[in-house]
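Journal club prep, shared notes

We agreed each person brings one worked example of a sequence with its structure written out as tokens. Mine is SpoVA protein. I'm keeping it raw so we can talk through how to read the token line rather than staring at a rendered picture. Sequence first:
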Amino acid sequence: MEYLKAFIVGGAICVIGQIILDRTKFTPAHILVSFLTLGVILGGVGVYEPIAKFGGAGATIPITGFGYALSQGAIKGAKANGIIGAFTGGLQAAAGGIAAAIIFGYIMAVIFNPKTKN
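Then the structure, token by token:
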């Protein structure tokens, strides 16, 4: 049942992104930043947490989940260390995902020899 919930929530997020892409003049970069910001805002006000609990990986893996992780880290950091913690907490909470993206991106670049588009 967890897989079905993850599929529904993750699929819904992707469908929303695809509809925005098809019906507006937004570029994928605009949508990416919008979804990240939306994840931060919804996480900050407490709306994204029930979605993440219901959808599991379907809600935490997309870019909105990264925004949610940033907001939760910033909130915890601010409670523990004040205003400085608000800035450092988000990075601490998301450090594993950032590191994995860099490491796996490097490995894929070495294996597959990327080329520029012409």
